[in-house]
Amino acid sequence: MIAAGAKGKGKAVGLAVENLPLANRIASRLHRWYSWVGLDDLRSYAYLGLALAERNYESDRGVPFAQFAWRKGMFLAIDEMRKDGVLTRRRTTPGPTFIALTPELLDPGAGDRQDEMERRDLCSSLLHKLRQQDRHLLTMYYADQLTFREIAKVFKISESAVCLRHKALLKKLRKLASARTKAG
Predict the structure, then answer these.
(1) 9-56 confidence digits (pLDDT tens)
(2) Which domains does the chain have, with CATH numbers?
(3) Which residues pair with 2 in a beta bridge?
(4) The pTM is what?
Protein backbone atom coordinates (compact mmCIF):
# COMPACT_ATOMS: atom_id res chain seq x y z
CA MET A 1 0.00 0.00 0.00
CA ILE A 2 1.35 3.46 -0.90
CA ALA A 3 1.39 6.03 1.89
CA ALA A 4 -1.02 8.91 1.48
CA GLY A 5 1.53 11.57 2.43
CA ALA A 6 4.45 10.14 0.50
CA LYS A 7 4.89 13.28 -1.64
CA GLY A 8 5.17 11.27 -4.83
CA LYS A 9 8.27 9.38 -3.75
CA GLY A 10 6.52 6.00 -3.90
CA LYS A 11 7.14 5.12 -0.27
CA ALA A 12 5.35 2.01 0.91
CA VAL A 13 3.82 1.85 4.34
CA GLY A 14 5.53 -0.61 6.62
CA LEU A 15 8.71 -1.34 4.67
CA ALA A 16 10.66 -1.27 7.91
CA VAL A 17 8.18 -3.65 9.53
CA GLU A 18 8.29 -5.98 6.53
CA ASN A 19 12.10 -6.09 6.79
CA LEU A 20 12.54 -6.69 10.53
CA PRO A 21 14.86 -9.67 9.91
CA LEU A 22 17.18 -7.17 8.21
CA ALA A 23 17.29 -5.18 11.45
CA ASN A 24 18.36 -8.32 13.28
CA ARG A 25 21.20 -8.84 10.79
CA ILE A 26 22.23 -5.20 11.19
CA ALA A 27 22.26 -5.65 14.97
CA SER A 28 24.41 -8.77 14.64
CA ARG A 29 26.90 -6.91 12.45
CA LEU A 30 26.98 -3.97 14.87
CA HIS A 31 27.55 -6.42 17.71
CA ARG A 32 30.76 -7.59 16.00
CA TRP A 33 32.01 -4.00 15.96
CA TYR A 34 30.61 -2.84 19.30
CA SER A 35 30.61 -6.00 21.43
CA TRP A 36 30.40 -4.02 24.67
CA VAL A 37 26.91 -2.78 23.72
CA GLY A 38 24.15 -5.24 24.56
CA LEU A 39 22.56 -7.08 21.64
CA ASP A 40 19.06 -5.95 22.69
CA ASP A 41 20.21 -2.32 22.64
CA LEU A 42 21.79 -2.83 19.23
CA ARG A 43 18.53 -4.33 17.94
CA SER A 44 16.68 -1.23 19.15
CA TYR A 45 19.12 1.02 17.33
CA ALA A 46 18.89 -1.17 14.22
CA TYR A 47 15.07 -0.94 14.27
CA LEU A 48 15.35 2.82 14.60
CA GLY A 49 17.91 2.93 11.78
CA LEU A 50 15.58 0.88 9.60
CA ALA A 51 12.65 3.20 10.36
CA LEU A 52 14.79 6.24 9.52
CA ALA A 53 15.98 4.55 6.33
CA GLU A 54 12.34 4.04 5.35
CA ARG A 55 11.81 7.81 5.60
CA ASN A 56 14.64 8.44 3.12
CA TYR A 57 13.78 5.62 0.73
CA GLU A 58 12.66 6.49 -2.78
CA SER A 59 11.42 3.47 -4.70
CA ASP A 60 11.53 5.28 -8.04
CA ARG A 61 15.34 5.21 -7.96
CA GLY A 62 15.26 1.48 -8.74
CA VAL A 63 17.14 0.28 -5.65
CA PRO A 64 15.43 -2.45 -3.61
CA PHE A 65 14.57 -1.35 -0.09
CA ALA A 66 16.58 -4.16 1.54
CA GLN A 67 19.74 -3.08 -0.30
CA PHE A 68 19.19 0.58 0.55
CA ALA A 69 18.25 -0.10 4.16
CA TRP A 70 21.23 -2.36 4.85
CA ARG A 71 23.76 0.47 4.61
CA LYS A 72 21.57 3.42 5.42
CA GLY A 73 19.98 1.66 8.39
CA MET A 74 23.33 0.58 9.77
CA PHE A 75 24.89 4.03 9.60
CA LEU A 76 21.77 5.73 10.91
CA ALA A 77 21.86 3.30 13.85
CA ILE A 78 25.49 4.25 14.49
CA ASP A 79 24.57 7.95 14.32
CA GLU A 80 21.78 7.40 16.84
CA MET A 81 24.17 5.55 19.19
CA ARG A 82 26.52 8.54 19.01
CA LYS A 83 23.67 10.96 19.70
CA ASP A 84 22.66 8.93 22.76
CA GLY A 85 26.25 8.81 24.00
CA VAL A 86 26.58 5.04 23.60
CA LEU A 87 29.51 5.55 21.24
CA THR A 88 31.91 8.24 22.32
CA ARG A 89 35.52 8.99 21.63
CA ARG A 90 37.74 8.82 24.66
CA ARG A 91 39.90 11.94 24.75
CA THR A 92 42.47 10.42 27.09
CA THR A 93 43.89 7.93 24.61
CA PRO A 94 46.50 9.24 22.15
CA GLY A 95 46.26 8.46 18.47
CA PRO A 96 48.49 5.93 16.75
CA THR A 97 52.15 6.84 17.10
CA PHE A 98 52.78 6.65 13.34
CA ILE A 99 50.58 9.72 12.83
CA ALA A 100 52.79 12.37 14.34
CA LEU A 101 51.50 15.59 12.85
CA THR A 102 53.86 17.87 14.75
CA PRO A 103 57.07 17.31 16.71
CA GLU A 104 55.12 17.79 19.96
CA LEU A 105 53.06 14.67 19.21
CA LEU A 106 55.98 12.27 18.88
CA ASP A 107 56.04 9.16 21.02
CA PRO A 108 57.52 10.32 24.38
CA GLY A 109 59.02 6.87 24.92
CA ALA A 110 61.32 7.14 21.91
CA GLY A 111 64.77 6.78 23.42
CA ASP A 112 66.96 6.99 20.38
CA ARG A 113 67.05 10.38 18.63
CA GLN A 114 67.73 8.69 15.27
CA ASP A 115 64.52 6.61 15.54
CA GLU A 116 62.63 9.78 16.40
CA MET A 117 63.95 11.56 13.32
CA GLU A 118 63.14 8.59 11.08
CA ARG A 119 59.58 8.43 12.44
CA ARG A 120 59.15 12.17 11.92
CA ASP A 121 60.40 11.89 8.33
CA LEU A 122 58.17 8.89 7.63
CA CYS A 123 55.09 10.61 9.04
CA SER A 124 55.84 13.82 7.20
CA SER A 125 56.29 12.08 3.85
CA LEU A 126 53.16 9.95 4.35
CA LEU A 127 51.03 12.91 5.34
CA HIS A 128 52.19 14.95 2.34
CA LYS A 129 50.83 12.21 0.09
CA LEU A 130 47.34 12.97 1.40
CA ARG A 131 45.03 15.72 0.23
CA GLN A 132 45.05 18.87 2.36
CA GLN A 133 41.46 18.20 3.46
CA ASP A 134 42.44 14.71 4.68
CA ARG A 135 45.44 16.10 6.59
CA HIS A 136 43.11 18.67 8.12
CA LEU A 137 40.72 15.92 9.26
CA LEU A 138 43.55 13.97 10.91
CA THR A 139 44.90 17.11 12.56
CA MET A 140 41.49 17.96 14.00
CA TYR A 141 41.03 14.41 15.30
CA TYR A 142 44.49 13.69 16.73
CA ALA A 143 46.04 17.09 17.48
CA ASP A 144 42.94 19.13 18.32
CA GLN A 145 41.17 16.15 19.93
CA LEU A 146 37.85 16.93 18.21
CA THR A 147 35.12 14.30 18.09
CA PHE A 148 33.66 12.98 14.85
CA ARG A 149 30.55 15.07 15.56
CA GLU A 150 32.60 18.26 15.84
CA ILE A 151 34.57 17.44 12.69
CA ALA A 152 31.34 16.67 10.84
CA LYS A 153 30.08 20.18 11.62
CA VAL A 154 33.28 21.71 10.22
CA PHE A 155 33.09 19.70 6.99
CA LYS A 156 29.27 19.87 6.87
CA ILE A 157 28.93 16.11 6.46
CA SER A 158 27.49 13.37 8.67
CA GLU A 159 29.35 11.80 11.58
CA SER A 160 29.31 8.44 9.87
CA ALA A 161 30.93 10.00 6.79
CA VAL A 162 33.72 11.39 9.01
CA CYS A 163 34.12 7.97 10.64
CA LEU A 164 34.34 6.24 7.25
CA ARG A 165 36.77 8.83 5.89
CA HIS A 166 38.96 8.50 9.02
CA LYS A 167 38.99 4.72 8.72
CA ALA A 168 39.90 4.94 5.03
CA LEU A 169 42.70 7.40 5.77
CA LEU A 170 44.21 5.12 8.41
CA LYS A 171 44.05 2.21 5.98
CA LYS A 172 45.70 4.30 3.29
CA LEU A 173 48.47 5.48 5.66
CA ARG A 174 49.15 1.91 6.79
CA LYS A 175 49.36 0.77 3.18
CA LEU A 176 51.72 3.63 2.28
CA ALA A 177 53.88 2.98 5.34
CA SER A 178 54.02 -0.74 4.59
CA ALA A 179 55.03 -0.11 0.97
CA ARG A 180 57.70 2.35 2.08
CA THR A 181 59.21 0.04 4.70
CA LYS A 182 59.28 -2.85 2.19
CA ALA A 183 61.01 -0.64 -0.37
CA GLY A 184 63.50 0.81 2.13
Answers:
(1) 444 447 777 888 888 888 888 888 877 788 888 888 888 888 888 888
(2) 15-83 (1.10.1740), 103-183 (1.10.10.10)
(3) 12
(4) 0.41
